[in-house]
């Protein structure tokens, strides 16, 4: 989604220090624009949509994301530059405009990724998640579209976690959805406890990242569910179907398949206890030489 500023009906950042260059993305309640800051620097601005202006829940969610990002500093998390309000009262978040693409985009372009290269990317993203977990923040919407791969001139891309809009903060008051039956997250990557309305913690994000890693390597999900299956079918698979072994449906080494299998356990107690433990297991399952060679081929 790329729409130049001239084609937009109104200025979405009216009353701010930022001048819109183009629309570059968006979700259900907010749009993301490339914009120029006061010194001409390129920024990415996430702002509440005009039609959501009266939604206190959507505004609170965006402001919560801003507060979370402001409290977190890590190379594998996208940094926050500013939290502000437009002239018509819509919150926005200003972040650096990073060069690169999301993991979803690279997957659509390349299909399956080399196991060692995928392992390198996912382990880096887990490093960012661990930093968030250390501060009591559970992402709850881990998926390829929320992992940005920052271009590097000296090595593989650097993964950075995006979109903490529905994150759970333990020990703090956060917004609550008005519908108690509403499940937050993306069905394809939901952990069983999210579907059942149970307690979420770091192991919830571990499960979701296990799905992401499986898809990166196999170019398919871990469950024998038809592509395009409805949301309920997908959620039933998370709850009741045994995942396939990664090395049965791809060229992944058995050691990596065992690591992913543990991340995809239905019961949180049987998964890796932390994102850091999952990342360490991933790195231990692939030889450094293979990872380096895969990264060189993918660059």
The largest sheet, given as strand count, sense and whether it forms a barrel, is: 6 strands, antiparallel
Strand order of the largest sheet: 1-2-3-4-6-5
How much β-strand is present in the residues? 15-25%
Structural class: alpha+beta
CATH topology of the largest domain: Transferase(Phosphotransferase), domain 1
CATH architecture of the largest domain: Orthogonal Bundle
CATH superfamily of the largest domain: Transferase(Phosphotransferase) domain 1
**Assembly state:** single chain
Tell me, briefly, the overall form.
globular
Helical content class: 25-40%
Quick tags:
single chain; Phosphorylase Kinase, domain 1; protein serine/threonine kinase activity; transferase; 2 domains; 16% strand; Transferase(Phosphotransferase), domain 1; 11 strands; ATP-binding; Kinase-like_dom_sf; 299 residues; six-stranded antiparallel β-sheet; alpha+beta
Explained architecture:
With 299 residues, the protein is α+β, with helices and mostly antiparallel strands. It folds into two domains: 3-96, Phosphorylase Kinase, domain 1 (2-Layer Sandwich), CATH 3.30.200; 100-298, Transferase(Phosphotransferase) domain 1 (Transferase(Phosphotransferase), domain 1, Orthogonal Bundle), CATH 1.10.510.10. It is built from nine helices and eleven strands. It has helices at residues 56-71, 103-110, 115-134, 192-195, 202-218, 231-240, 254-263, 275-285, 288-298, and strands at residues 3-4, 19-26, 30-36, 42-48, 82-85, 91-96, 100-102, 137-138, 147-150, 158-161, 168-169. The protein is globular and about 55 Å long. Residues 172-181 have low confidence and may be disordered.
């Amino acid at each position: 989604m790329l729409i130049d500023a001239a084609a937009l009906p109104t200025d979405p950042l009216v009353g701010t220090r930022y001048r819109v260059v183009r629309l570059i993305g968006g979700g259900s309640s907010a749009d993301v624009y490339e914009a120029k800051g006061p010194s001409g620097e390129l920024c990415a601005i996430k702002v509440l949509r005009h039609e959501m202006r009266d939604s206190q829940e959507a505004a609170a969610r965006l402001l919560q994301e801003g507060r979370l990002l402001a409290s977190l500093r890590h190379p594998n998390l996208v940094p926050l530059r500013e939290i502000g309000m437009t002239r018509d009262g819509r919150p926005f978040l200003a972040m650096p405009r990073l060069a690169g693409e999301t993991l979803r985009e690279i997957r659509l372009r390349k299909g399956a990724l080399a196991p060692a290269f995928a392992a390198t990317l996912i382990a880096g993203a887990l490093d960012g998640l661990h930093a968030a977990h250390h501060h009591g923040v559970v992402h709850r919407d881990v998926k390829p579209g929320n992992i940005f791969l920052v271009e590097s001139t000296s090595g593989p891309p650097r993964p950075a976690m995006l979109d903490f809009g529905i994150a759970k903060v333990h020990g703090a008051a956060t917004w609550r959805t008005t519908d108690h039956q509403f499940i937050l997250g993306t069905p394809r990557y939901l952990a069983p406890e999210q579907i059942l309305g149970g307690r979420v913690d770091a192991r919830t994000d571990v499960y979701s990242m296990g799905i992401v890693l499986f898809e990166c390597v196999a170019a398919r999900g871990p469950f024998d569910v038809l592509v395009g299956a409805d949301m309920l079918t997908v959620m039933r698979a998370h709850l009741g179907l045994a995942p396939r072994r990664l090395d049965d449906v791809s060229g992944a080494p058995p050691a990596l398949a065992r690591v992913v299998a543990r991340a995809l356990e239905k019961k949180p107690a049987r998964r890796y206890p932390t994102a850091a433990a999952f990342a360490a297991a991933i790195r231990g399952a692939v030889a450094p030489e293979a990872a380096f060679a895969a990264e060189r081929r993918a660059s």
